[in-house]
Amino acid sequence: QSVLTQPPSVSGAPGQRVTISCTGSSSNIGAGYDVHWYQQLPGTAPKVLIYDNSNRPSGVPDRFSGSKSGTSASLAITGLQAEDEADYYCQSYDSSLSGSYVFGIGTKVTV
Amino acid sequence: QVQLVESGGGVVQPGRSLRLSCAASGFTFSTYGMHWVRQTPGKGLEWVAVIWYDGGNKFYGDSVKGRFTISRDNSKNTLYLQMNSLSAEDTAVYYCARGMGSVVKDTWFDPWGQGTLVTVSS
Description:
The structure holds 2 protein chains of 2 kinds. Chain A is mainly β. Chain A has strands at 9-11, 18-23, 36-40, 47-50, 64-69, 72-77, 86-94, 100-103, 107-110. By secondary structure, chain B is mainly beta. Chain B has strands spanning 3-7, 10-12, 18-25, 34-40, 44-51, 58-60, 68-73, 78-83, 92-100, 108-112, 116-120. In chain B, strands 2, 4, 5, 6, 9, 10 and 11 form a 7-stranded mixed beta sheet that branches. Chain B has a 4-stranded antiparallel beta sheet with strand order 1-3-8-7, with no helix packed on it. In chain B, a hairpin with a 6-residue loop joins strand 5 (44-51) and strand 6. The A-B interface holds A 2, 33-34, 36, 38, 44-48, 51-52, 57, 89, 91, 93, 95, 97-106 and B 35, 44-47, 50, 59, 61-62, 65, 95, 100-101, 103, 105-115.
């Protein structure tokens, strides 16, 4: 299982708001390491959606927002659109053992 | 535009070796740390290795340590991953990705290549 825990799936109707949680521990998110989020459309490579907990790269709609608190982080999608149907992954750094970048198992968003 | 293109994937027998390449363009390759990340249906995304901008430091995930070697040729804008002693558990799509951010442990990956499929099977 992944070091970062995400729900396997979330769904919502067009226009609704959905949130995806990413739960870690004291060796990763709780240690203060930043959380980043990626969107993976079917058949394509992951693309960064949110970096450093809450920052959007240019070109990413402001419907996507990120937050972090304690040992968890969240990605929110407001005004859900059909094109948002994809897999979403959180990523951070884990300092246990030899240290490693770690990902959540991914959350499938269905619109 | 910034682009990463992987090559070298294919079908390989258990115990054999394979070398992946990643050609970079559209940015100053020699100033960025570069990563390999792999993806399997069962285990999701797994970070594999990183090499610093000048090749001076290399770090590996526990599952590949001692078997895989990351390297780069800044004169050719190319990243490599030498994979030895392959097993079925190494079957995955392998992505190269540029490391972003000023703090190493807070790195995020942007962009990613299109990926190359490695299948380890007899």
